[in-house]
Amino acid sequence: MAQVRKIINDPVYGFITIDHPLVMEIISHPYYQRLRRIHQMAFASLVYPGAVHTRLHHSLGAYHLMGLAISELRNKGTEITPDEELAAKIAILLHDIGHGPYSHALERKLIRGVHHEEISTLILELLNDKFGGELDLAIEIFKGTYHKKFLHQLVSGQLDVDRMDYLSRDSFYTGVSEGVIGYDRILKMLVVHEGELMVEEKAIYSVEKFLVARRLMYWQVYLHKTVVAAEKMLVRTIDRAQELTAAGIDLPVASPALAFFLKEHQPDGNFLRHLEKFCQMDDTDIMCTLKQWGYYIDPVLGRLSRGLTDRRLLKIHYRNQPFTDAEVQEKRQEVMERLRLNEAEATYLAFAGEAKNTTYNPANEHIRILFKNNRVADISEVDNALIMQHMAAPVKKYYLCHLR
Amino acid sequence: MAQVRKIINDPVYGFITIDHPLVMEIISHPYYQRLRRIHQMAFASLVYPGAVHTRLHHSLGAYHLMGLAISELRNKGTEITPDEELAAKIAILLHDIGHGPYSHALERKLIRGVHHEEISTLILELLNDKFGGELDLAIEIFKGTYHKKFLHQLVSGQLDVDRMDYLSRDSFYTGVSEGVIGYDRILKMLVVHEGELMVEEKAIYSVEKFLVARRLMYWQVYLHKTVVAAEKMLVRTIDRAQELTAAGIDLPVASPALAFFLKEHQPDGNFLRHLEKFCQMDDTDIMCTLKQWGYYIDPVLGRLSRGLTDRRLLKIHYRNQPFTDAEVQEKRQEVMERLRLNEAEATYLAFAGEAKNTTYNPANEHIRILFKNNRVADISEVDNALIMQHMAAPVKKYYLCHLR
Amino acid sequence: MAQVRKIINDPVYGFITIDHPLVMEIISHPYYQRLRRIHQMAFASLVYPGAVHTRLHHSLGAYHLMGLAISELRNKGTEITPDEELAAKIAILLHDIGHGPYSHALERKLIRGVHHEEISTLILELLNDKFGGELDLAIEIFKGTYHKKFLHQLVSGQLDVDRMDYLSRDSFYTGVSEGVIGYDRILKMLVVHEGELMVEEKAIYSVEKFLVARRLMYWQVYLHKTVVAAEKMLVRTIDRAQELTAAGIDLPVASPALAFFLKEHQPDGNFLRHLEKFCQMDDTDIMCTLKQWGYYIDPVLGRLSRGLTDRRLLKIHYRNQPFTDAEVQEKRQEVMERLRLNEAEATYLAFAGEAKNTTYNPANEHIRILFKNNRVADISEVDNALIMQHMAAPVKKYYLCHLR
Amino acid sequence: MAQVRKIINDPVYGFITIDHPLVMEIISHPYYQRLRRIHQMAFASLVYPGAVHTRLHHSLGAYHLMGLAISELRNKGTEITPDEELAAKIAILLHDIGHGPYSHALERKLIRGVHHEEISTLILELLNDKFGGELDLAIEIFKGTYHKKFLHQLVSGQLDVDRMDYLSRDSFYTGVSEGVIGYDRILKMLVVHEGELMVEEKAIYSVEKFLVARRLMYWQVYLHKTVVAAEKMLVRTIDRAQELTAAGIDLPVASPALAFFLKEHQPDGNFLRHLEKFCQMDDTDIMCTLKQWGYYIDPVLGRLSRGLTDRRLLKIHYRNQPFTDAEVQEKRQEVMERLRLNEAEATYLAFAGEAKNTTYNPANEHIRILFKNNRVADISEVDNALIMQHMAAPVKKYYLCHLR
């Protein structure tokens, strides 16, 4: 047998098996390997030192869950051809391929005018060319244009394998064990009914637990105030660098690719020609640059950069009501006086904003329960539901961030 | 109470508690924070994608185990003062502070003439100055000059908390569950007898298991042939870069600090004045530089660098007998012809060497068993020992590495 | 040192340490050892085959958590004397000492007129006599009469170590991983304020998760319909046996102690004189008797008993509305015809009832959150609470159980 | 679809799936359900309180591993038909069906003249009759007469799924985490070569770890001196009961089935007619009887029985040399004087013996390694083997057991 068969150790699932040559080729491609150098959780490791896992690892994990999900659905009689299986697996493997350095934090900041999902699509199409059209079906599933809707819902939906993997993996690597979601049980309860992905009645409690675990992960980890402070600092660091650059200052930058996007790139509706350059960047370009900016003469750029490399973060306060202009202004004034900065400069070191998360929004999210009698209901509508209408409103927290 | 008390989540141990202001200050120091950017296992993540944890995380873990070990010994009547406890904890916290980028792989290559333990000592002394002598006792324990020998043995010995943490942590993050060592049971069995660290009789099987697990981790992970191939490639990449530099070529380098050590630094017996610069480097400087070298015109530097960033590694063979000159030469010839290189160049892409590991060497290692009747014996001498004399000889494997 | 120190392996917590001679003596007492033979989860193992752990193991686990809780509270400045610590640990160690065979299922059935907590108190006092009054303080804490209220709240309250252990242990042994509650984080967040046990503000999400996990464990495990069917069958089996006995039939019973409580014991307000006999019973008396009744000539007793020993359970239906008399009657009629029974007999094999559980009832439960500004609020009253007023109403499910 | 599909939660493997009606019927049979009441580890729970899992759970686990093993072998090109798969699964499911109460301890004691594997075969044949010959192939595989030898080797051999499950499960339930064997990796490395089961070359370290873990489990758990003391006490309790019975004394016994085997049964070469009675017994008959004997007038029977129910065990010493007759006699003398017993009686309470275990015996055990070049070698013959010739000799420990 000329069969490909590679087994990858994964602390979360034990083993991940790669058994198709096309999957192997995709994984071996430099664009995919680049994901080794993009952290899944950006600056969360400043709070949870174990959370240094990568987007490569996450997407391999999601690929593994896709295999389990498909196998479960087939056991329940849903027809999925080998081609569809392969395509769905490739779609999830590549769902994050368009992420840039410190993805969520820097999105729309470093690369203006282009969303990471557009970049993903561009890269998918580029790879499709390279692989002679073998990714056609994967792209259809990714975009949601394929007629078997449930395959797209597995890639991107309320109970998709992306979420299942990142919640499982992030809770594993942070050590926040309450974030554990019981992905295996939910997978066992998935079912396709009238072409749509649903869960069986007996999964109700597991799905409730899933939503509550997600809520907990948001507030305890993803929107942890220290993590948010670091991400906001990074955004402001890039802002400041671009401002200084615009003023004609030639800042040191660790790589030509990052230098291009920081200093030259203008959105022009034709991102395709910058794609190769984009794919040369990852978290190391940013971090290696921040280390140099930490010694730079501009006090704003220096403080922010050193703050990130040395974990000397701005102080951040959370509360349920917005901070008033006066409150923000007071902090800014302090900064101006202490560091002898003007107000524009002080704004980089004292600012306010909001963080929000919605536990479950039945308006645009749909976790459908299939009852034994074939009735279908949204999880927010079942008797004695824990997940209720009032959860549709996002929970907001307001923050004030300032120099210590 | 003005008590410091910080709880850090750790997926391996649950929680790590920091409860002394000096420990907090050390952890907050930029030299320590730098360890966030040095991977504990260098290129092992090319085989085990989960193994991306950092030296910061490892040293926090070892610090945690030190606390447990001290508490166990105290429960058994060994006197350890609060100052000694603090010092031992600081010694282990800082035991890896002198590691540079891709530590084991690049040691003695990037910084010639200085060993990482010398650098650790220099940094410890520098920090001691900064902290007004508060690290005196920690340094004594670190160096092994303190009269309570067992404290040094906990930092660096056959059953030290360094090994216990790295074996536990590395097996956790790689997912190689057979590497699990049962650190908690061994800790419970530690005992101090006549000033030396030993284990109680009933720990024999656990210690055997520990040694076998370590043996397994070496051959399955640390000396995994793919990992070894990557490390050897990195060494040769640096060699080639230094050769090209010596030939007057000005290679791009991501940071001034790395540029200094690659291009200018000469061992001069006074490393202290370069320490600050040394501490600006970490894995990101190397990786960000490799990405640029991957596009460089020199085919040797280009292939090696791209090989590391894109995981297109040299092929590697392991066997129990050395490869002959003829075998190596044959591979070199192939490379010369395929890439039109001269022999010196081809040597970078086809070479041989050896990897070795000793399971237990009673000549210089000592795991002492304390029997109930107060008899002390080396573990290799107990009845029915699994760990025998013949294990004193190192197991060697010979490799041949060459372009695919 | 004449110190007692025994380490017990526990798969849930790693190690449990016994380090006081009085605790050791209590554990060694036959009344405590009897708990080895009472399953923690009665018939849950018919659904979850791993759930065969014992009340002895659970109470050792709760004892372990009590130690951790006390140590945390002390670290936060709450004064707890060594005597109080010992007493609190003993109180929790013995909190289940009064359980009889198949405790929850058979309570108030086998021993009429006496509640298991009364029996616990009687046994505690008996042991206190034996140990020369050394259990005085433990009894005060157990009963809630000791002035440091929080100690009783740790034994029996909304966040007591009893619940923390049984939820952790039951989810561990059933393999229902979503039931995991993160006991370690909650313990770290406990605090005593104005003499009462509370949790710190940052524990809100963990406590929410705890309540949701408990809710899940109730419906997925404790009130799993198959488990409920088995428990109801056991109750009816005992009913039938007592009815036959009352009719003068001399049923075989595996032990004299069980024979006494089945055939002779009458509630007389003086249970103390039966205590020794009571403590001779455990799950094996019941199971060994059921095996004999399975061959007995009475078809009702035979079917019920064999159903339990051979896992041929009655069929059970759950729904949100009560079953009507007509529905129950129909099933009963079927049984009467099939087995040629009279209606009274058929009632044992076809019956209805209800199972209920309350997620969080702020009326009588109190999980208090201590905010940073020293404000105290019930968890149901914090902003954006998941745990709301409407959860005060118990969730009820109605069942209909009948011969297949 | 009339498909059977039942998912069972297992804390060790997550989920076990039953997907064939015949397997379901076998599991539902009272003979199989009886295994719920036989502890896998007999008295090990006296030392490891978590180790109360049952033979039913173990055999379900082994069945699960058989499915994984077969699926791996098929992936590697070994042909295994669906009928063979089903038969191999049934063979392992029923491999322990012949165990009686406190199996290993009481074997050849309670049922004299018949080995538990003979009883297993008898029961297999009885079930085969009941199921109309559907177990024919399973019986062939069980007995080792089927031409595909590797299927029998999976049921019973050096790397069979029975061992893999019991080592995994026993280490899980005892909490002796060093016993963990990495079953999943070994399963991935299984291969069939020339009709025999082997492991691939790269599994060498895992198999070494497996053997060392097994060695550890033997000495730390199965042959733990306290466990051995309890088992020897049980044997002597039965001996004494049979002696008293032979002397005409009518001891109380909890069940008619146990009474028959204790008092009446004589080996007569026709065990088949006692099979039904045999299958009525389990651990509860013994335990419920011991509780009654604990109050019996005979001091030997009383002490031994109470010792087991109340965990007041005989004292046991282990050493590497046999105890001399004089040493044993001295202890016996003490007992005679203290309890005013004659020598024959004292022998029950003071006796010596031996416990032994062989790490790896290449003479009759064969773990074969398949090298990449198709060479096959026994694991004890590979280069640098940890598992050596000298391990062929059993390790013996000698014990002396006596009243405290």
UniProtKB/TrEMBL annotation, chains A, B, C, D:
Note the InterPro entries from the entry.
dGTPase-like, HD/PDEase_dom, HD_assoc_2, HD_domain
| Source superkingdom | Bacteria
Known SMART domains for this protein? HDc
A Gene Ontology molecular function term of the record: dGTPase activity
Where does the record place the HD domain? 55-167
Name the PROSITE patterns on file.
HD (PS51831)
For biological process, the GO terms are:
dGTP catabolic process
The record's Pfam families line, in alphabetical order, gives: HD, HD_assoc_2
What is the protein name stated in its UniProt record?
HD domain-containing protein
Q: Name the source organism.
A: Cnuella takakiae
